[in-house]
Amino acid sequence: MLDRLKLTAIRDQLDTLLDEAARSDMTLREALAFLVRREIARRDERRIAMASKIAQFPFVRELDGFDFDAQPSLDPRQIRELATCRWIAHGDAVLLLGPPGTGKTHLAVALGREAIRGVNSSVRLTLSDGLLV
């Protein structure tokens, strides 16, 4: 039945998950919620992995790894606002401009990864001549 419902995370880990739920003295409702959360987590992991593969980022970069001190003209608050991905919902575009070596690609990849984690499957990022369109 779990296969038919495509609940593969629950199927693959059912015994372990039920044992863990029993050890934690969960109610039936809590155990079911626990199983469903695990299924959702697995699906999110797979979605993020697939979207990252499709995006073909040149490397993995995160906003936490960006050195804002090295780019004092950059406002960290503005970048954190971009990381919320509200600009996507509004249909806006983001352009990252600057000379070589200023972190444009780092920020583009990091923002792209944030968009993927935020379930924005319709995002299209183009990297061309150091310009993110």
Topology:
Layout (H helix, E strand, L loop, with lengths): L7 H16 L4 H28 L20 H8 L2 H4 L14 H14 L9 E2 L2 E2 L1
Antiparallel strand pairs: 1-2
Helix pairs in contact: 1-2, 2-5
Explain what the structure shows.
The protein has about 130 residues and is mainly alpha-helical. The chain folds into two domains: about 10-55; about 65-130, Rossmann fold (3-Layer(aba) Sandwich), CATH 3.40.50.300. Helices cover about 55% and strands about 5% of the residues. It has five helices and two strands; from the N terminus they run αααααββ. The protein has a two-stranded antiparallel ribbon. A hairpin with a 2-residue loop joins strand 1 (about 125-130) and strand 2 (about 130). The longest helix has 28 residues, at about 30-55. It is elongated and about 55 Å long. Mean pLDDT is about 85; it is low at about 130-133.
Count the domains: 2
Largest sheet: 2 strands, antiparallel
Residue share in helix: 40-55%
> Can you count the helices?
5
Rg, rounded, reads: 20 Å
Unreliable spans are: 129-133
CATH topology name of the largest domain: Rossmann fold
Number of strands: 2
- CATH architecture of the largest domain, by name, is 3-Layer(aba) Sandwich
Going by CATH, the homologous superfamily of the largest domain would be P-loop containing nucleotide triphosphate hydrolases
CATH top level of the largest domain is Alpha Beta
Q: What is the succession of H and E elements? A: HHHHHEE
Net shape:
elongated
Give the helix/strand class: mainly alpha
> Order of strands across the widest beta sheet?
1-2
Approximately how much beta-strand content do the residues carry? under 5%
Mean pLDDT: 86
- Intertermini distance: 46 Å
